[in-house]
Amino acid sequence: TGEDRLATDDLMDEVETFMFEGHDTTAAGLAWAVWCLATNPKIQEQAAAEVAGVFKDDADREATRDDLHAMPYLDRCIKETMRLFPPVPIVMRKLQNDFECGGHTLPRGVTVSICPLAIHRNEAVYENCQSFDPDRFLPERSVNRHAFDYIPFSAGPRNCIGQRFASYEQKVVLSWLLRRYRFECGMKLFDNPPMSEAVLRPKHGCLIRMYRREL
Questions:
Q1: Within 10 Å of residue 128's Cβ, how many Cβ atoms?
Q2: Residue 97 gets which letter from DSSP?
Q3: Half-sphere exposure of residue 60, counting CA atoms within 13 Å on the CB side?
Q4: Which one of 25, 110, 137, 201 is at 20 to 30 Å from 85 when CA atoms are compared?
Q5: Whole-angstrom Cα distance, residue 122 to residue 143?
Q6: For all residues of the chain together, what is the average pLDDT?
Q7: Does the annotation flag 160 for ligand binding?
Q8: Where does heme bind (predicted)?
Q9: Does domain 17-212 have CATH number 3.60.150.10?
Q10: CA 147, 163, 48, 77 torsion: positive or negative?
Q11: What is the distance of C-alpha 42 from the center of its chain?
Q12: What are the C-alpha distances in Å from 171 to residues 33, 132, 146, 152, 178?
């Protein structure tokens, strides 16, 4: 019926969501993941060994859901990448009620900026927070961590609707790349600072060399 039809503005919002949330952010996340692995070769080889163990002699087949669940180390590498370089560095929220914070009252209706980039580099939560350490996401090391200490997809009822899909997508692409290529980089992890735009991007692009692995 006419009442069920979306207005033009609503349709435009939906298109923007699919294009921005589902493309730019995932591409940026993958670029950062490759960068982190290229600048941490031992971690890269551990991830590649895990991937090789899952696919064994059939490296050309497509990844299944069971395959993705069988790569916990790669999953931790992705999580650690998004901790250091969350694709969306700032999220905005409009308060629905008065909110007490640090001895101050934020009134209902104001818009607050939340910075995952800063939250994820809190030394009180993440020891040696500037290092790339996928094992900080082992269950025994993250069990006491507050849920809001790690929010690459935002949090609450308005978090990223596509976060599960994005996580699967990154694992599919990275597992495909690691089966076939080894990444090298002559720079260090933080030699390529992030540009704080709507999507967090590496200032100098993803400057790496790729060498084909023996399948």
A1: 9
A2: S
A3: 2
A4: 110
A5: 17
A6: 87
A7: yes
A8: 160
A9: no
A10: negative
A11: 20
A12: 10, 18, 25, 16, 10
Q: What amino acid is encoded at 36 in this protein?
A: C
Q: Phi and psi for 61 in degrees, rounded to 5?
A: -75, 160
Q: Percentage of the chain with pLDDT > 70?
A: 89
Confidence of residue 205 (pLDDT cuts 50, 70, 90): confident
Sign of CA dihedral 101, 102, 106, 110: negative
Q: Coil, strand, or helix at residue 112?
A: strand
Closest by CA position to 154, among listed 91, 85, 77: 91
> Model's pTM, two decimal places?
0.85
More confident residue, 210 or 93: 210
Tell me the per-residue pLDDT of 34-87, one tens digit each, with 9 for 90 and over: 999 999 999 999 999 999 999 987 878 899 999 999 999 999 999 999 999 998
Q: Cβ distance 46 to 73 under 8 Å?
A: yes
How far apart CA 3 and CA 50 sit, in angstroms, is 52
Task: Give the per-residue pLDDT at 1.
Answer: 44
For the chain, the first-to-last Cα distance in angstroms comes to 56
Dist CA 43 CA 125 (whole Å) = 22
